[in-house]
Amino acid sequence: MDLWAEFSRSAKLSGIGVSEIIRIGAEARKLAETHQDVISLSAGEPDFPTPDNVKLAGINAILTNQTRYTALDGTAELKAAIRRKLKRENGLDYAANEISIGAGAKQVLFNILMATLDPGDEVIVPSPCWTTYLDMIRLAGGTATMVPCSAEAGFRLSPKQLTAALTSRTRWLLLNSPSNPTGAVYGAAHLAALAEVLRTAPGVGVISDEIYEHVLYDSAPFATMAAICPDIRPRVVIVNGVSKAYSMTGWRVGYAAAAPDIIAAMAVVQSQSSSNPCSISQVAAIEALDGPQDIITERRDAFRRRRDRIVAGLNAIPHVHCLLPDGAFYAFADMRTLLARPELKRKDIADDTALCRYFLHECHVASVPGFCFGGPGYLRLSFAASDRMIDDALERMKAGVERLLKY
Ligand SMILES: Cc1ncc(COP(=O)(O)O)c(C=O)c1O
């Protein structure tokens, strides 16, 4: 038998593909090979470079031969820097055996789910949500319970919705604040109200994805359940990393802070998959966390200006509605009124995927369809792009919509 002619994927992978965001990004790059004017607003990463002090720390790590395997779930030095960060910024004390470091927050999330889910275990995921959560939960053998959170509710899960979603099989509530794709932020009072419900469900933990902690436009300080509700803290796993705050997406360093048992279980998963995160990146991450922090405010101010620009521009496009996100760098634009127009139906543009394709191929603007995030009828546009790119993209999208509405 020719094994490769017979090749089929494992059952584990059924229904799981490469993330739609990566696929659209690749399609945009392919189009850009023949059309130089393609504007990509589909990627989820800051367009700023990694700060120079961090780059130099990485170079120095190479020159000083810090290029070998490190401790499995991160060096003692980086764990210490993460503990300092959690104390300084979040008022939280964690011990070294309560920290796990992986190749990005993504790997850390994967480790948590692999280490804790059994078949049939449920994870409550307020949606719209980052697409990856759902596939990761499935790969880990669990079931995602998506709870739709409307724009009217600020795309946030209410205590009532949480109560209704809990079952005897619920293992985790997965919160992401600020949220990708909606920019929704959970304030302290809201988290306290959710914690009130969790007190009635002692077996349920909270995975708190805080990767956009520093991309926050609200005047209120960033809130994390672990700090707000000390009694709930033992069941909270904080997930964070250096990717978004320090423009270090390619360096791949993320971390978790949690009870020692969870951290030890995560180390087993990492031990049998990737082993330690890159030694050089770990040294650079120490510099990011311990070095000057002005860059965070400077870049957040730039993102705020771009946010205001893109949201105003989107709302100036006929039949498009977009709320001002409180955090992260995505505009989540409601295209449902536009998609309901007979002119679009006649042109076979019936959903967000078709509209996304139209904008990519006819206007050369790449976005991501909302259905990928559990928000059909929406488009996600990243504003981690220059003012010029944002203005050009908006101009082209507006003209594109006007063309669609013509006859
Ligand atoms: C909500 C959310 N969590 C986690 C990640 C992963 O971040 P990292 O680059 O650290 O793996 C992303 C990246 O896009 C994200 O949007």
TrEMBL record:
GO molecular function (one): L-aspartate:2-oxoglutarate aminotransferase activity
Cofactors named for this entry: pyridoxal 5'-phosphate
Residue ranges of domain Aminotransferase class I/classII large in the record: 37-396
Catalysed transformations (reactions): L-aspartate + 2-oxoglutarate = oxaloacetate + L-glutamate
Top-level taxon of origin: Bacteria
InterPro entries membership: Aminotransferase_I/II_large, AspAT/PAT-like, NHTrfase_class1_PyrdxlP-BS, PyrdxlP-dep_Trfase, PyrdxlP-dep_Trfase_major, PyrdxlP-dep_Trfase_small
Signal peptide: none
Record keyword Transferase present: yes
PROSITE patterns referenced in this protein's UniProt entry, alphabetically: AA_TRANSFER_CLASS_1
GO BP annotation list: amino acid metabolic process
Assigned keywords, A-Z: Aminotransferase, Pyridoxal phosphate, Transferase
Top enzyme class: transferase
EC numbers, comma separated: 2.6.1.-
Keyword Transferase recorded: yes
Family: Belongs to the class-I pyridoxal-phosphate-dependent aminotransferase family.
Quaternary structure and partners: Homodimer.
PANTHER family cross-referenced by the UniProt entry: ASPARTATE AMINOTRANSFERASE
Protein name as catalogued: Aminotransferase
Species in which this protein is naturally found: Nguyenibacter vanlangensis
